[in-house]
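EI: anyone free to look at a 330-residue chain?
SC: sure, send it
EI:
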Amino acid sequence: MERDSGFGSRVARYLWSLLNLYFLLRSFAKACVDRAFHAMGLAFLEPRRGLMFAARKSQASVARLIGIQDPGWRWDWIAGERPPPPRCIAAVVNDQDDAMHPRCLTQLANLAVWCTEEGIGHVSMYDQDGSVRAGKERLVEAVVRATVDGHRRNRLHRMRACTYEVRTVDDDGTVRVAARFTCGGAATNKWAELFGIGKKEPTKDGDDSRASAPTKTTVDLLRGGDGGAALLEAARVMTRDVTRNKDSLSNEDSITPRELEDWMERTGRRLPAVDLAIVFGKHFHASAYPPWQLHRAEIYHVDGGLWGFTRKGLRRVLRRYSKTAQRFGK
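SC: here you go
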């Protein structure tokens, strides 16, 4: 027993010495790197915060130097740290005065275009009384203008063609396509001529949209209670089927959420589950947003409200979302 305790104490002292040596060498290496960066005039990259941090900061500096503003989220993939974006994002305007304001549609249109550029293929826009849904025609025009303006401001980054589907929900829960249009790429020049914002620029291949297939972004315009009728109908039908076949079943609790979603998918009534919800308004509440879409969503509140939300703000939210290890609405 004494030999075992003596051997254990020697091993512990040995490991402790190795740990101290590791931290000593680590501090010495950091000091050497820091002095090297200072000697080269690159102290602004803050190498003591890590070489990956310095690499991201240098990429941002180069991007600003060549005219790309706020690279942020888009440039993280160069350092190998960009995670996949959320599949579905929801914008909740919980202040009805903001939802009825004419600027609301412009801001939401910008958000749709920014989400398209970040690779998010589904955007839900919600206010409780349906003011955004009532202005869907003006929203379509605002999306086109936002795309054309973004293309005009940044000629170096040519926006890909994107097909937008604007959808609404009927009283019986059926999801219908209210508008479908394409902008970006060669279509951007066409819309630019239509609105008088710019002139068509000839390309070598004629139509630059042939080089890559258009992306697709679905925009759902929702109001309070949307989707509830479809969920109730799915539960009623599934319960009826279970009741008919209950003698052949081992238990009565055979209806699963997956089965309800499959039924709504087959009947064209399913709204996708939201991965990330952004709440705009003075107070942090979802304003009766359909809860069956938020069962796995991360919900963030924007302090500045809808008017102060920018592309940089969206990228901050995406970075925060990307650092969440477990996303179950907590």
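EI: DSSP finds ten helices and seven strands in the chain.
SC: 👍
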